[in-house]
Design a protein that fits this description.
The protein is built from 3 helices and 11 strands, in the order H-E-E-E-E-E-E-H-H-E-E-E-E-E. The chain has 224 residues and is an alpha+beta fold. It has one domain. A hairpin with a 2-residue loop joins strand 7 and strand 8. The chain is globular and about 40 Å long. The two termini are 28 Å apart.
Length: 224
Amino acid sequence: MDATSQAGGATATAGGPVVGGQAGPADPLLPYLSADFPWYGLDEGWTGRRFLMQAGAGGARAGAAGVDYGTLGHGDEPARQFEPRDLRKFAVVVTVARRGSRRSADNTGTLEATSASSAAWLAGSGLLAATWPGQLDRTLRQDWLDQQSTLAWDLADDLAGPGWSTLSLPVNGLPQPFRYRESEYGWVLAGEAPGVLLGAFGRGVSAYGIGFSTVPDLSGYTRP
């Protein structure tokens, strides 16, 4: 369930988002514009705040710039290091490029093709990062993160297992099945969408009432 990168240009490619104006070298929009796949966010049913989070690459070829996955936030920004977490209400959409198996960056092995499990893992680890218990000291916090990350990985690798249920949500107005699970920290879901693999995580926002759509113009998402 790997997500890796492929070289992309500094402007939107076919099927990618369109944003007015030039993106400067330090502009957080730049990695989003480099993607060779469409971005997804919550559909027009969401009327709250929208913000950019992070777009990244995994297993990129040496010297190649590109993006393989990224996140778009909705609602409250996830808490920073020691801020209270239980009052935050947010939903984050994870878009993952469809990639086949390929050689690793150092050319010593083969990376797996991306799958819905890739989106589930990124969403699960994102939820952990946003909701870890802030009152824990550094050592206990790391132990908790290690334990929960292992659990999230195992769950993501078994989307057909009993840890998940099925939830149908609209994607571009059409119903699409997702694998869904809840915990005391929030919820995670994963599935497929036209052109990409799709995940999401949230807290304080009901997953049952959301829908997804492609984002043709990222200007509605504020900079961090």
